[in-house]
Design goal:
Blueprint (H helix, E strand, L loop, with lengths): L6 H4 L6 E3 L29 E3 L9 H6 L7 E4 L6 H8 L3 E5 L3 H12 L7 H7 L9 H6 L8 H12 L4 H17 L20 H18 L8 E3 L3 H4 L7 E4 L12 H4 L1 H8 L27 H10 L6 E7 L6 H10 L2 E12 L9 E12 L4 E4 L18 E2 L11 E2 L9 E8 L1 E2 L4 E3 L1 H7 L7 E4 L8 E13 L2 E10 L5 H11 L5 E7 L2 E4 L5 E2 L7 H6 L3 E2 L2 E2 L2 E4 L2 E8 L10 E4 L27 H6 L3 H5 L2 H50 L7 H12 L3 H13 L4 H9 L21 E3 L14 H17 L4 H6 L2
Parallel strand pairs: 3-4, 3-6, 4-5, 6-7, 8-10, 15-24, 16-25
Antiparallel strand pairs: 1-2, 7-9, 8-9, 11-12, 13-18, 13-26, 14-15, 16-17, 17-18, 19-25, 19-27, 20-21, 20-24, 22-23
Helix pairs in contact: 4-8, 7-8, 8-9, 8-12, 13-14, 20-21, 22-24
């Protein structure tokens, strides 16, 4: 099996199957007769079936088997997904019923669960790869330029048409293999919610064919007969459950976590549509990745309890349940116990540490608790916790697989072993990075840009108030997702605070928990900016058109002026205690700090700190505490008051530091513009008696207010050029030796960058009758300062 190069490539592989061994073509029956299928492999040589996809249970199958009730003969896998748990039960000799609403999952279960003996022959595999003049062109017409390299779109159209020449289990194997190859060979992360490949090379047509051929051979090798009549269904879960006859129901339902949800059908719309060649589906042509319309309802925090209540109620006749669930998911543990108990089941909650690699290039991981509710018939509803979950940092809204060490030994059972990827003890928080639309700085983010570039935020720094000091980095961004609602699109992220490494991170964590830090502000670079008025594009701010240079963030002739950003790369996040340019960029949830479980804590109590939702006024929340609690422990009250004073002092110090930095930046900008003005005047012939006079004038100009400087600049521009300057211009015609082209010069401009933190001061540098208003007073003051009869003045007015 080809292992993935990075953890990023492991992320979000939904319904992806692979065989964990290096296959020998000779063992697949390639030397058999031309039309004969490969023979079934003996158990000791049969490949172990693993999967890499969102929420995969492949690392936990042995743990699930351990808690399977004795005497179980028939198992229903109600949300089979990649069918890895169903396949495990099949290898144990149980009768298996697999069900999933997605067509790709259904074909996977038909191919390796219900199918006991049918395989594709070598000739049939080659026939799938052959040319077909009658093939359609749907993929070419609708997905040109995205997901796959040139030439692969037409190849997929051809292979899909060849699949229709097959029937029964052979067609299931072909579609299963084609779907898997599309996901593993498209580049990017294997899902289809973004058209960006993020630098990963995509398969060429020949490589795609070779990958499909190997995948079909591997699926062939997974087919075996366990002497049971297994079934695979594609039904609504609430229609199937009432009539299902099983000793055990295993539920691995869709997750709704604290931070987000995962819409499998939308994330993998291409493969799901390919199963029927988009028959009866309407593609949304205005979307970049060409989603199709679906009425599928995502499980969210709001409807999760109702969803569980309904399907578990339809399964109450099945004696035993195993329910896989994640820590920090909805419904929460107590609500799950209540729902299970309401159907006359007694439950025991089992917990297991589980590593989730979250979009990391360097192997960092986040710990989570994988939970398994073991439910059995009971005389009365009760719930007993056998294993107390340890506190943890809140996991991101991605369920990902991790590096696994796969071993194949003689007589070895289906198993995988997780590598040691370390412990993650840093608290996490979720936040809205930015929304589609225009912020107060006049930067405009399109839905197309955010949906394609949101993952560039991962592995970027989190700092205080956009500080560029290394010591002010307090964390990093570990996950990102693009979501849409009635108000438009947004980028939601998960960040970590390095509280074990820096005092600043610990302070930031406390302030976030108390709601003092509640806003965030993104930092980004971008390749091109586009004016909303004239639609000219610029790669340097020095080349801005008049609209952007003078009116960005304001109106021009009644029309808003903003800069449409293209090629955005998020470079970091600033934590704010006030609203930034994007008022919707805010912290959503702050999770608890992970610590080691307290062995002395009584069974059944939780050591996990309560989640704190930021409030507008922390003092109001503090006032809601019961007075009795404060009066009963004056020492504790005194400690809290002391800590509060210390925090306020630290906040004041930070605010003072920010103000000092802003003042320094402002002074540097004013001095820079003063230098540019003097340089321009000196080119026009203005000179000074000494360097001290020039420095004095530079200092005076730098200290002017924005309005006064604009007036000064306008007045200078109205002064006539000196004869010396005109003479120099005649002696040196511009670019005469370069064919009229401007002379090349080194660029000192910085790349296009947007800092959506504190909005800069508005500068009104429009020309509004300054000569009439300021001529007498200003020019008189200027002549008095530089000297009426000085050589410089005489030269200007010559």
């Amino acid at each position: 099996m080809e292992l993935f190069a990075t953890d990023l490539e492991r992320l979000a592989f939904l319904l992806e199957a692979d065989a964990a061994l290096t296959l020998d073509p000779d063992t697949l029956g390639s030397e058999a007769a031309e039309q004969s299928a490969p023979e079934e492999l003996p158990p000791e040589k049969r490949p172990k079936y693993i999967t890499n996809y969102i929420g995969s249970k492949q690392k936990l199958v042995d743990w699930i088997w351990k808690h399977t009730p004795e005497g179980t003969g028939t198992v229903l896998d109600a949300f089979s997904g990649s069918a890895v748990v169903a396949y495990m039960y099949k290898t144990k000799g149980l009768q298996v019923i697999a069900n999933d609403r997605l067509r790709y999952c259904h074909h996977a279960a038909k191919a390796i669960i219900e199918n006991n003996s049918v395989r594709l022959s070598e000739d049939e595999i080659e026939a799938l790869l052959a040319d077909n003049a009658k093939a359609g062109s749907f993929v070419q017409d609708n997905f040109k330029g995205i997901f796959f390299a040139k030439g692969v779109h037409a190849l997929i159209d051809t292979i899909r048409a060849n699949c229709d020449k097959l029937s029964g289990f052979k067609k299931d194997i072909a579609l299963f293999g084609l779907g898997k190859t599309c996901m593993s060979g498209k580049g990017g992360f294997g899902h289809f919610s973004s058209s960006t490949d993020y630098g990963r090379r995509q398969d060429t047509p020949d490589e795609f064919k070779d990958r499909l051929r190997k995948n079909l051979q591997r699926i062939n090798a997974l087919v075996f007969d366990n002497d049971k009549e297994n079934k695979a269904y594609r039904q609504d879960i609430n229609e199937l459950l009432p009539k299902a006859k099983a000793d055990l129901a295993y539920f691995d339902p869709p997750y709704a976590t604290e931070f987000s949800t995962t819409n499998y059908e939308r994330a993998y719309h291409f493969v799901e549509g390919l199963m029927t060649y988009w028959e009866g589906l309407e593609i949304k042509a205005d979307t970049k990745v060409k989603y199709y319309e679906t009425d599928h309802k995502t499980v969210t925090k709001a409807n999760a309890s109702e969803f569980f209540q309904t399907f578990l109620g339809n399964a109450k006749h099945i004696p035993h349940w195993l329910i896989s669930y994640r820590d920090h998911a909805y419904p929460n543990e107590q609500e799950m116990k209540r729902i299970i108990g309401s159907f006359g089941k007694q439950s025991r909650m089992k917990s297991k540490d589980h590593h989730y690699a979250i979009t990391s290039k360097h192997g960092e991981a986040s710990n989570a608790k994988e939970r398994l509710f073991v439910c059995a018939p009971g005389a009365k509803a009760s719930a007993e916790r056998e294993e107390k979950p340890a506190p943890m940092a809140a996991a991101a809204n991605f369920h990902t697989s991790i590096p696994v060490d796969i071993r194949l030994g003689e007589g070895e059972r289906l198993a995988t072993e997780a590598m040691d990827v370390g412990s993650a003890g840093d608290p996490q928080f979720s936040f809205v990075l930015c929304r589609t639309g225009t912020n107060k700085n006049g930067d405009h983010f399109t839905a197309e840009e955010l949906s394609g570039r949101h993952m560039t935020a991962v592995n970027k720094k989190v700092d205080l108030q956009h500080s560029q000091e290394f010591n002010d980095i307090v964390g990093g961004i570990v996950a990102a997702d693009y979501l849409e609602d009635d108000n438009g699109g947004r980028v939601e992220c998960v960040g970590e605070l390095y509280v074990h490494d820096t005092p600043a991170a610990r302070l930031a964590y406390k302030l976030m928990k108390r709601g003092i830090i509640s806003q965030v502000s993104m930092e980004c670079d971008y390749q091109e900016g586009e004016c909303s008025i004239c639609h000219k594009r610029f790669q340097n701010k020095a080349d801005y058109c008049t609209h952007l240079r003078k009116f960005k963030g304001r109106d021009f002739n009644g029309q808003p002026v903003f800069e449409i950003l293209h090629g955005v790369t998020f470079t970091g996040l600033g934590l704010l205690d006030r609203k930034g340019a994007d008022e919707n960029a805010r912290i959503l949830q702050v999770a608890s700090l992970q610590s080691q479980p307290d062995q002395s804590q009584p069974e059944g109590d939780s050591t996990m700190e309560d989640k704190t939702k930021p409030t507008d006024d922390p003092a109001v929340e503090a006032a809601k505490k019961k007075p009795a609690q404060q009066e009963g422990d004056p020492a504790r009250v005194s400690d809290l008051e002391k800590e509060n004073r210390q925090l306020k002092a630290q906040v004041a110090e930070l605010q003072k530091r920010v103000q000092e930095l802003e003042a320094e930046q402002k002074a540097a900008a004013c001095r820079s513009r003063a230098k540019k003005l003097l340089t321009r005047l000196e080119k026009q012939g203005l000179s000074f008696a000494s360097e001290e006079d020039r420095e004095a004038e530079l200092k005076r100009l730098a200290e002017l207010s924005d309005e006064a400087f604009a007036a000064t600049e306008a007045a200078y521009e109205r002064l006539p050029k000196s004869a010396k300057a005109d003479k120099d211009k005649e002696e040196k015609p511009a670019d005469s030796d370069q064919g009229g082209k401007p002379a090349a010069k080194a660029s000192t401009e910085t790349p296009l960058r947007s800092d959506a933190g504190v909005r800069p001061h508005d500068v009104d540098d429009r020309k509004v009758s300054l000569e009439d208003r300021l001529r007498d007073g200003f020019m008189a003051a200027y002549r008095n300062r530089v000297g009426e009869d000085s050589p410089e003045h005489s030269q200007i007015n010559a």
